[in-house]
Amino acid sequence: MEVLRDAGLGIEALCGGQGACATCHCYFEPDAFRGLPSPSADETDLLGILDTNMPGRSRLTCQLLMHSDWPDLNITIAPEG
User: Fold this and answer.
1) Above 70 in pLDDT, residue 29?
2) Are 14 and 23 in contact (CB under 8 A)?
3) Is the pTM of this model over 0.90?
4) Cβ–Cβ contacts within 10 Å for residue 24, how many?
5) Could you report the per-residue pLDDT of 45-56, keeping only the tens digit for each?
6) Residue 65's pLDDT is what?
7) pLDDT value, residue 81
8) DSSP letter for each residue of 3-20
9) Considering only CA atoms, which of 80, 78, 66, 72 is closest in space to residue 31?
10) Are 42 and 19 contacting, i.e. CB atoms less than 8 angstroms apart?
């Protein structure tokens, strides 16, 4: 989330990364999504109430920490993100 926000890519992050607002919701390509750590129950619950949720692609970027061993990730910022 911070990487996207600091790059000026339109991430609002209204809750400051607490996983409470979904304004950092993004879509990952399915192959990349499978390589991400599993979401918490709270993240899954919040994503589940969004009309724009795409199971298997949706994540809150505030709940992910970038790692140098991840391949390049192509993401799309969700409409409410």
Assistant:
1) yes
2) yes
3) no
4) 26
5) 999 999 999 999
6) 87
7) 52
8) HHHHTTSS---TTSSSSS
9) 72
10) yes
User: Which residue reads 């993401």 in tokens?
Assistant: 75
Separation between Cα atoms, residue 56 and residue 28, nearest integer Å:
8
Look up residue 44 and give its amino acid. T
- 43 token code pair: 């993240």
DSSP string, 37-75: PPPPHHHHHHHHT-TT--TTTEEEGGG----TTSPP--E
CB neighbours (10 Å) of residue 79? 9
End-to-end CA distance of the chain: 10
Distance CA 42, CA 27 (A): 18
